[in-house]
Specification:
- This protein is α+β, with helices and mostly antiparallel strands.
- It folds into 2 domains: 201 residues, CheC-like (Chemotaxis protein chec, 3-Layer(aba) Sandwich), CATH 3.40.1550.10; 65 residues, Surface presentation of antigens (SPOA) (Roll).
- Helices cover 33% and strands 27% of the residues.
- The protein is built from 8 helices and 11 strands.
- The longest helix is centred in the first third of the chain and has 25 residues.
- The chain is elongated.
Length: 290
């Protein structure tokens, strides 16, 4: 059976799981790029490729035995599967060890891309990439609680992993890792019903969660602006134009009346002007509590 790859843009409005995955990935890609810059000096990003749905058996039957795979647990009871060819993983490793992958050749003597073997060092680097990927997805998780994705050891032949029943529906997500040297594809296999339920529970929990409010300790430490105006006056444009240093302007504030201090534009205190050391100061005479 041939899988039909869906363009995400065609199904985003219909498939809530695909929409949630895109949101999740968009929140995670910046974390991944930061990790990649630290490791290689170059940026990288994650891009969501085709999303399709088929039975577990059909997807595995269409997967080459030579692919490398890794089980990643979203929860203890929710294993997922990352897998790709050795050629794709080698493209990612190229950035880490500083070499460009060889160009593909059409000659019959060339090595089939699906049969590329990873050396011990390359396999360790791929494991680091997947662990880093898991950590970045954990940071980008859109739920109210943090998610810690646990990854297993790299193995050969994903068809040997019977994580689910043959007829269980799976969501197959293609994640494209755009690096300096090349773009690599890693496939992510998730149980459709369980993952859909996880996303639904996440949204429900976020709706039920009480609105965040600052603590009393935080509130009492917040700075506020208290403003006291000595007085005001109205002058004509001519007088303002002819104003010179040394001239006096009579304010509308009587010297035998207290000034008003405002907080956030609201009249809050009556006070008298004064001095404390080398600074001007005010002495509160009455509060205007409402």
């Amino acid at each position: 059976m041939t899988l039909r790859a869906f363009d995400f843009r065609e199904i985003a409005g219909l498939d809530d799981t695909a929409t949630a995955i895109r949101t999740w990935l968009s929140k995670s890609t910046s974390f991944f790029s930061d990790e990649w810059v630290q490791a290689t000096g170059f940026g990288a990003k994650l891009v969501l490729g085709p999303v399709s749905t088929d039975s577990f058996e059909s997807i595995l039957d269409a997967t080459p035995r030579t692919d490398w795979c890794c089980v990643a647990y979203l929860r203890e009871d929710l294993p997922t599967l990352w897998y790709s060819s050795g050629a794709n993983f080698r493209k990612v490793v190229g950035d880490l060890i500083g070499f460009d992958p060889p160009e593909e050749s059409d000659e019959e003597t060339s090595e089939p891309q699906e049969d590329i073997e990873l050396g011990a060092i390359e396999a360790d680097l791929v494991q680091w990439v997947l662990d880093t990927f898991a950590a970045c997805l954990s940071q980008g998780w859109m739920g109210t609680d943090e998610m810690a994705i646990q990854t297993g050891k790299m193995e050969k032949d994903p068809r040997k992993l019977r994580l689910y029943r043959a007829k269980d529906l799976m969501t197959r997500v293609t994640l494209k890792v755009e690096c300096k040297s090349a773009t690599s594809e890693i496939h992510w296999l998730l149980p459709k019903q369980k993952v859909s339920k996880l996303f639904e529970d996440t949204v429900d929990n976020r709706q039920k969660a009480p609105a965040a409010s600052p603590s009393k300790e935080m509130i009492i430490q917040m700075p506020v602006d208290l403003v006291t105006i000595l007085g005001s006056a109205k002058v004509s444009m001519k007088d303002l134009k002819d104003l010179k240093p040394g001239q006096l302007i009579v304010l509308d504030q009587r010297i035998d009346a207290p000034m008003t201090a405002t907080v956030d534009g609201a009249s809050s205190f009556e006070c008298w002007p004064g001095r404390l050391g080398n600074n001007q100061a005010i002495q509160v005479s009455r509060t205007n509590k409402k």
